[in-house]
Design a protein that fits this description.
Serine Threonine Protein Phosphatase 5, Tetratricopeptide repeat; 20 helices; 0% strand; mainly alpha; globular; 70% helix
Length: 411
């Protein structure tokens, strides 16, 4: 074999080693970065779990009540009754909300919206048996409700009553730890639904979380059960673990309930080898803190608009017209962007490698500098190794952050 040909083959082998390594690393990163794929399957799920979504503050609803409550004495607009009742429910004054709906039923009998709202307010005040009566009437008044949101709401209400048993209020979690089936089988609320009912149930639960109408902790548990359903490669276990963790934060007053939800969160990620709850929770706490910060800013805006006498509804619509997203840390965003485009990057690296090796072949030979590279190959070589080093560093950071609490890195 000629020396030149042998040397080129040797260089190809040497130069290919880091690229082959990076290809394997990229595949590993792709496999571990499942949260991005889960979020793509369920847009806004993480936002609704953390609480970072467009919703008015309690101050706004107090303003709505103060501004409109006197209209109930003179109005013949049924929508005013709905708006004020919802405002009372958002400030946790459920009895007032229920009374307004009863008054509306006397003035405008037989409306679907009246019975649907009554069911929601009764659920929020833990009057589940009465809620069951009114939600069935609402579904009879609205045929489309039988296959829509109200059908899932009814199923969740029935499931809650079943799991409550003889108690006056449900024990949380509804599903106890001994109810865990083998991996991949439906559990909890997902098991209560038929296969056909589970289709679209996640979106319905997310909608209920956004607009209210049920105990939020129960919604988080039901969401976790639905996200957990299926084999590990098809379910959304990382989102499920976050739903259970959020439920554990909301039941801190009951030590047993909080611990049980944390056990569910651990079970949710059990199929992810090497992944521990503390690593998931470290990231999740940052996501929750981001959501809290966003909601604090929103509440501050609404408070300032109310104090200034501005049209709060118009100001709110102009500023908060797009759904916010949980963004995470800047370095993690950059790494995830690269992972999402992993195949493109691998192809790009092969192109750079070809240019790099081709440089040796086309370099003029001389006794003084037989190994000299032409300029494009030098540039390609620089970027090639730069990306390899970045890939190694990013992979190491991701791996460590999955298992240990890592410091926040910002640009």
């Amino acid at each position: 074999m000629p020396d030149g040909v042998g040397m080129n083959i040797k260089r190809w082998r040497i130069a290919s080693l880091p690229l082959i390594w990076f290809t394997l690393v990229a595949a590993t990163i792709w496999d571990t970065d499942t949260l991005s794929r889960e979020r793509a399957r369920h847009p806004l799920a993480l936002e609704l779990i953390t609480g970072k979504y467009i919703s008015h503050s309690p101050e706004y609803y107090k303003w709505v009540i103060e501004k409109n409550v006197d209209k109930l004495k003179t109005t013949d607009d049924q929508k005013v009754y709905d708006d004020i009742a919802v405002a009372y429910s958002k400030t946790s004054e459920y009895d007032k909300a229920i009374n307004i709906m009863m008054e509306k039923e006397g003035l405008f009998p037989g409306l679907h919206s009246t019975y649907a709202n009554l069911a929601q307010f009764l659920i929020m005040s833990n009057r589940y048996d009465e809620a069951l009566y009114y939600i069935n009437i609402a579904m009879r008044l609205s045929p489309e409700g039988r296959s829509g949101r109200e059908s899932i709401q009814l199923k969740l209400l029935e499931y809650t009553l079943k799991m409550r048993g003889d108690r006056s209020t449900p024990r949380l979690p509804l599903r106890q730890s001994e109810d865990y089936p083998e991996q991949g089988k439906a559990l909890g609320f997902a098991a209560y639904l038929t296969a056909g009912q589970r289709v679209g149930a996640i979106n319905t639960i997310l909608e209920m979380m956004r607009f209210g109408g049920f105990n939020r902790t129960i919604l988080l548990e039901a969401l976790g059960d639905l996200l957990m359903h299926g084999q590990p490669e098809r379910n959304s276990a990382l989102l499920a673990s976050r739903a259970y963790l959020k439920a554990s934060y909301e039941t801190k007053g009951t030590k047993e309930g909080s611990a049980a939800y944390r056990l569910m969160a651990t079970e949710a990620i059990s199929a992810h080898e090497g992944l521990i709850l503390s690593a998931v929770e470290t990231k999740f706490r940052k996501e929750v803190a981001e959501a809290n910060e966003w909601n604090t800013a929103l509440a501050r805006d609404e408070k300032e608009w109310i104090a200034s006498g501005a049209d709060v509804t118009t100001m709110f619509t102009e500023k908060y017209y797009a759904n916010p997203q949980v963004e995470g840390e800047p370095l993690e965003q950059l790494i995830e962007t690269l992972h999402e485009n992993g195949i493109v990057l691998i192809i790009l690296f092969w192109v750079i490698l070809i240019i790099f090796v081709s440089g040796f072949k086309h370099t003029p030979r001389s006794s003084d500098n037989s190994e000299k590279l032409f300029l494009p190959a030098r540039i390609a070589s620089f970027f090639f190794w730069l990306v390899i080093v970045f890939a190694m560093g990013s992979y190491a950071y991701l791996y460590l952050s999955e298992h240990y609490e890592m410091p926040v890195l910002r640009f």
